[in-house]
From TrEMBL:
The keyword Cytoplasm does not apply. Residues 388-408 are annotated as: Disordered. The lineage of its organism: Eukaryota, Fungi, Dikarya, Basidiomycota, Ustilaginomycotina. Keywords: Signal. InterPro entries: AB_hydrolase_fold. Residues 1-25 form the signal peptide. This is Alpha/beta-hydrolase.
Length: 408
């Protein structure tokens, strides 16, 4: 073959190959099972959550690493929460250019404290969004999943010496940490609330992604409870960009009035924190509650950017306690009645809030976040240049669900 032909052929081959790695490089190499699905615009990959071993005491033996959690890197000591060196693990997006990020999505885990699973649920939704909407660039959306640790994790071996620990799942209520860190040293954990950790994480995230235009804090189930309570109690702050709160399918809500839709005279403490504001408030918010009172807390809450997201098939109760049961029969019913209560107290549904019932979803974060409304709230609302239109089916579902508020 003449030399010129060889050169031309080689140039053609190299040009063709240069097109392939761009797509291939976007797919993270990880050990968890993945499968390909056809999206509206292109194919995309979904991943199983990484497997992890749990000890007899309920603690995690080891946190899944970056190779196992597709699209994520596990940061063990990058996020320092106090001056004594306490740390909290994070799962964060693997991105080539942090300065290109336009949107930060922070997710809070549920009862299992499996932050990697909740990273994957948001990551899978982002994969779908990128294959569905031409105006969404996955490389410009960062996901951060918090990984709260407790004493059981330290005993089982997954907590490091400087990790901040909490009692059981008290982090979801804004409780103080334990005095001892993962290695047993006294590093001031009892002086910091899990909600103060979220305050610091929002600042840390904006420093890591300096050009982001919005922060979304989202949680499902117990994570939804955490986001609901944090959105009420969060201290006034001069945020560099707007912060939005998405509470998905919580088993109970932080009720803003003393009465309940299904009263039970034999149930004590129905309005004590974490269910209400009458007593037992965590130290993080005590000063604000005393300063603002119940009405002031309500009006501050109403002025925030809040999404209440309910699966329209989520008929499970979740929390069987009487304090939760007086709020309603199920996750869905409690959320609907919470919306009714807020609307009654204020005379109208807050202008800065959104209320979605997601068609076809039960108590499933993968379903909720990857739904049309879920992708709208996490990724598309307020995204530069993105449309916020939804299909006729999703729009009709929202109209029907507004009427459903009248259900008892």
């Amino acid at each position: 073959m003449p030399r010129l032909s060889v050169v031309v052929l080689l140039a053609v081959v190299l040009a063709a190959l240069s097109l392939v790695p761009a797509a291939a490089a976007a797919a993270p190499k990880c050990s968890s099972h993945g499968w390909t699905t056809q999206g509206k615009l292109r194919k995309y990959t979904q991943y199983d959550a990484a497997a992890a071993d749990i000890a007899a005491n309920g603690g995690w033996k080891k946190l899944p690493g970056s190779k196992a959690v597709c699209g994520a890197q596990l940061l063990r000591d990058a996020f320092v929460v106090n001056s004594q060196g306490l740390t909290q693990p994070l799962y964060v997006s693997q991105l080539a250019d942090n300065s290109a990020v336009q949107r930060i999505v922070i997710t809070v885990p549920a009862k299992g404290r499996d932050g990697w699973m909740y990273f994957t649920s948001i990551y899978n939704a982002l994969q779908k969004a990128g294959a569905t909407y031409a105006d969404i660039d996955k490389k410009k959306i960062a996901i951060i999943s918090t990984q709260y640790m407790n004493q059981a994790d330290a005993d089982a071996g997954s907590a490091r010496a400087t990790d901040l620990l909490f009692d059981d799942v008290s982090w979801s209520d804004g409780a103080q940490g334990r005095a001892n860190a993962g290695g047993g040293a006294q590093l001031g954990g009892d002086q910091i609330s899990s909600y103060e950790v979220l305050d610091k994480l929002i600042v840390w995230a904006q420093q890591r992604y300096p050009n982001a235009k919005r922060v979304v804090v989202a949680g499902h189930s117990l994570g939804g409870q955490a986001v609901n309570r944090y959105s009420v109690l969060r201290k006034e702050q001069l945020d560099a960009v707007p912060v939005y709160f998405v509470a998905g399918n919580p088993a109970s809500w932080l009720w803003m009035e003393t009465s309940r839709p299904r009263p039970d005279a034999n149930c004590p403490g129905v309005d004590d924190y974490k269910f209400g504001l009458s007593a037992g408030m965590v130290p993080y918010a005590m000063a604000d509650l005393l300063r603002l009172g119940r009405d002031g807390m309500l009006r501050r809450f109403a002025g925030r950017n809040v999404v209440l997201a309910l699966g329209d098939k989520d008929y499970g109760a979740g929390d069987p306690s009487c304090q939760a049961s007086v709020q309603g029969r199920s996750h869905r019913n409690r959320g609907m009645l919470f919306v009714r209560s807020i609307t009654k107290l204020l005379g109208a549904f807050p202008a800065k809030w959104s209320y979605d019932q997601v068609s076809g979803c039960s108590h499933d974060p993968m379903c909720m976040w990857a739904s049309e409304l879920g992708m709208l709230r996490l990724f598309r609302d307020g995204y530069p240049g993105a449309s916020t239109r939804v299909s006729k089916n999703a729009s009709a579902a929202r109209r029907r669900n507004e009427l459903d508020e009248e259900e008892q």
